Amino acid sequence: MSKIKKRNVIVxxxxxxxxxxxxxxxxxxxxxxxxxxxxxxxxxxxxxGFMEGRYVDLSEHIQTGLDAELxxxxxxxxxxxxxxxxxxxxxxxxxxxKIFKMLDELEIDCFIYIGGNDSMxxxxxxxxxxxxxxxxxRFVGCPKTIDNDLALTDHTPGYGSAAKYIGTSxxxxxxxxxxxxxxxxxVVIVEIMGRNAGWLTGxxxxxxxxxxxxxxxxxxxxxxxxxxAFVDKCKELLKTKASIVMCVSEGIRTAEGKYVSEMTxxxxxxxxxxxxxxxxxxxxxxxxxxxxxxxKTRAIELSTLQRAASHCASRIDILEAYEVGGAAMxxxxxxxxxxxxxxxxxxxxxxxxxxxxxDVHKIANDERLVPREWITxxxxxxxxxxxxxxxxxxxxxxxPIMVDGIPRHLYVKGFQELL
Length: 419
Hints:
4-stranded parallel beta sheet, 12 helices, Rossmann fold, alpha/beta
């Protein structure tokens, strides 16, 4: 490969944003430049935007070391994201011909896609078509998801920062409850993201420390949820505590498979991959508890905050996100295609992890759940093994670059209008 003139790279971001996704973008850009590529294009709103002819030259956005540092500290997807599902090749071959024609016109050698499960489906399909069509373009996936549910990797960039924010916020919520005196007790229900995997909700256990008892119960979607048992648990806890905090995944569902969020009048929205919008779980449960117990309740939905809190980012997470972006670019440069970069944990204490590449066909559209043995027998908490796993991923801080008391993010005049 080194004897062939290197042309250009294109990179996109897809799926839910995180506090670390732009650090991976910076890693792709820097490594591509260091390896001699002429241009690094950024897709505006992922593959969907690219098909509409929307892309930029990232050299116009990352011109200095300060730009790169600001980008690492900028939450959300800088290039804009999408949730677009490519059809199967045999369903719309003309669409693939269009995409590859556009890539050839831009003289693209490497295509890097930063995303989660559904984004790896895009890499899988494009790399398959490259083989069918005889294209030499390499397609490599760069992992990203706060859900931490990608197969074959120890963890995913974005998760550590979200876990750090969740642990911190839950601890502050618990502290707030200490200061209140209520005649009949108080139940605070914190709803945390996680459709089928409870990695994020499990991270609420990080609030437990010498100066905090941690949440009173933790409910993950891996275990069938019983509303009546939940109410009974609240009653039991309120016998000895004036204020309790219950953490629940947005995706908890009954033994029959019905999401608790579907028991309330929520927004009926389904994305391109068939995922229902989950919201209102905590609100529904707080209403039931108030009715059945007659105590004060409060529903707290962390929602977007858990993936956008760059001011509470994990240093390990930001560094690894940058590293994995560089590793994805390196893999594509050295001839890999149809692959995704993964983390392999080498040690918990001291924490060490390395990167390697795996076949994206074994990753796309799969989900890695919290192991059953990391959840207590009664399904209302996580075990010490979970804590050992997650704690190294939240270590260290990334100080925001402050201007007038508020964090500064990367901004290029006129670019926001393109999104």
